[in-house]
Amino acid sequence: MSFFDPRKDTSPPTVSYADVMSSQDGLKVWIELICRYGFCFVEGCPIDPVATEELLKRISYIRHTHYGGFYDFTSDLALKDTAYTEVALEPHTDTTYFTDPAGLQMFHLLSHTGGGGGYSILLDGFRAARRLLEYSPEDFRVLCNFEVPYHASGNEGISITPSIGSSPVLRGRLDFNFKDDSALTSILPYQIRWNDSDRGDMPIYPSPLPWYRAAKLWRDILKDPDLEYRFQLQPGTALSKLDADISSNMLRYQVFDNWRMLHGRSEFTGARRMCGGYSKINPHAFSFSSLPILSDQNVVNMDDFQSQWKILSLGSREILERI
Question: Can you give the pTM of this predicted structure?
Answer without folding.
Answer: 0.81
